[in-house]
Design a protein that fits this description.
alpha/beta, 6 strands
Length: 240
C-alpha cells in the first residue's frame, strides 16, 4: 500500500495528458498487497488488493476504473461485478500499439519481472505481435523508480528500447510500468517509433469509452451468481 507521497507520485501521471476539464482523477491505494511483483504469489495478492479497492466504485458514484499497473491485476474480476468501464493499461496499451504498428515491444525494469509480462501477453494471444520484452536491468525502488535518477536510468531505458527497435523489429514501444511515466517524454523524443505511456493513455481511453457510452461485454465477463463483497472486505480488514 502507498503512503501519501507514493500516491502523489502516481497522481503526477495526470500531467502527461490533456483531459476534459470536467474529468476528475481520484487515486486510491490498495489496502493490502505484495512487497514485490515477481511471482504467482505476488499476482494473487495484487488481484485481491486491487479488486477490494475498486469493487464499490460504481456504488460510490465513479464513472470508470483505471487499474494502475501493466499487469491488469483484478481487471477481469472487477469487470464481472461492475458495469462501468474497467481499464487495464496492459491490455489497452498493447492493443492500441497494434493500431500504430504491426509489432510492439515492452520495456521492463529487470529480469525477474519478465514472467509477468509474458504471462499477460500469452493470455491476450499477442505472442506473434510482440517483438520482445526487454529489461533495462536496474533493480526497482518500489517507492521511487526514476525521480532524481534521470541521468543514470533514462539512458539505460533508451538503450534497451533501441535494441527492441533495431534488433527485435519493434515498431511501437510500450512502457512496462505506469511508474515509468517520468521517462516518457525523454524516450518519446529520442525514439524513432511511437511510445505508449500506459497510465495517461488509460485515462484518455476511459474518457473515450464514456463519451461513446461503451463498456465491457457481459458475455465476456459474466456476473457472479452470488457476489461476496462483504467476504472480500472482511478478508482485507483482517489482513490490515
Amino acid at each position: 500500500p502507498l503512503d501519501e507521497e507514493g500516491v502523489a507520485r502516481r497522481a503526477a501521471q495526470g500531467q502527461h495528458v490533456e483531459l476534459d476539464p470536467s474529468t476528475e482523477l481520484v487515486y486510491r491505494p490498495v489496502r493490502v498487497g505484495s512487497t514485490s511483483f515477481m511471482s504467482h504469489h505476488d499476482w494473487l495478492l495484487a488481484d485481491i488488493g486491487i479488486y477490494e479497492a475498486a469493487v464499490d466504485a460504481e456504488k460510490e458514484g465513479f464513472d470508470a476504473v483505471v487499474i494502475d499497473t501493466m499487469s491488469d491485476s483484478g481487471m477481469a474480476a472487477l469487470r464481472s461485478v461492475l458495469s462501468i468501464p474497467v481499464i487495464g493499461p496492459g491490455k489497452a496499451s498493447m492493443l492500441y500499439a497494434l493500431t500504430l504498428g504491426n509489432s510492439f515491444s515492452v520495456l521492463a525494469q529487470w529480469k525477474p519481472a519478465l514472467p509477468r509480462y509474458k504471462k499477460v501477453i500469452r493470455e491476450y494471444g499477442l505472442e506473434r505481435q510482440c517483438a520482445s520484452v526487454r529489461s533495462f536491468d536496474i533493480e526497482p525502488d518500489f517507492v521511487n523508480l526514476t525521480e532524481g535518477k534521470e541521468n543514470t536510468v533514462f539512458p539505460r531505458m533508451l538503450e534497451t528500447a533501441m535494441r527492441c527497435v533495431e534488433e527485435d523489429g519493434a515498431e511501437v514501444i510500450c512502457l512496462g510500468s505506469t511508474t515509468m511515466h517520468l521517462a516518457a517524454k525523454y524516450l518519446a523524443e529520442q525514439l524513432p517509433v511511437p511510445l505508449i505511456n500506459p497510465g495517461p493513455f488509460s485515462y484518455k481511453l476511459a474518457e473515450t469509452l464514456l463519451s461513446l457510452k461503451l463498456t465491457h461485454s457481459r458475455h465476456a465477463y459474466p456476473s457472479p451468481q452470488v457476489r461476496k463483497d462483504e467476504l472480500v472486505h472482511a478478508l482485507v480488514d483482517a489482513a490490515v
